[in-house]
Amino acid sequence: MRLSLLLPILLIATPAAAQDHASAEDSAAVLKTIDAMFAALTAKDEAGILAVTDPAGKATGTTGTDAGEHRISHIDWAGFAKRLAAIQGVPVERNIDPHVHVDGDIAMVWTPYVFTLDGKFSHCGTNHFDLVRKDGAWKILNVTWTQRKTGCPGQ
């Protein structure tokens, strides 16, 4: 009787436990794709952004205000890439302690980040990336992030 009660729990828990860790090779490849996106962001390189993203995906940002309001914005990758030229200054985004999870051809990265413009602090938050492996290459399907100016690493 106890085994029949325990077996469903083990079957549910086992897949999640198996997904907790990515191989070093997969983790490096996933992070290399994200680093390429950040390099394209810094260079304001529209083609570079489009090269590492899946056109079916999007970028979603959430921001809060001092008044407690929260805004959510969505944009497809083509629109996101076109906006790069309008950024005033040199944007640099840096992930801090990314956690990578991979299962087959899907990956997820959760990480705090810091964003600077011309070397000066702009904001921080948390990034959540969803990636898919297509034809052997990792592509960023979606990124969702929070954005704030307080409680940031290094402040």
UniProtKB/TrEMBL annotation:
Residues 1-18 form the signal peptide. It comes from Sphingomonas gilva. Residues 30-141 form the SnoaL-like domain. This is SnoaL-like domain-containing protein. InterPro entries: NTF2-like_dom_sf, SnoaL-like. SUPFAM superfamilies: NTF2-like. Keywords: Signal.
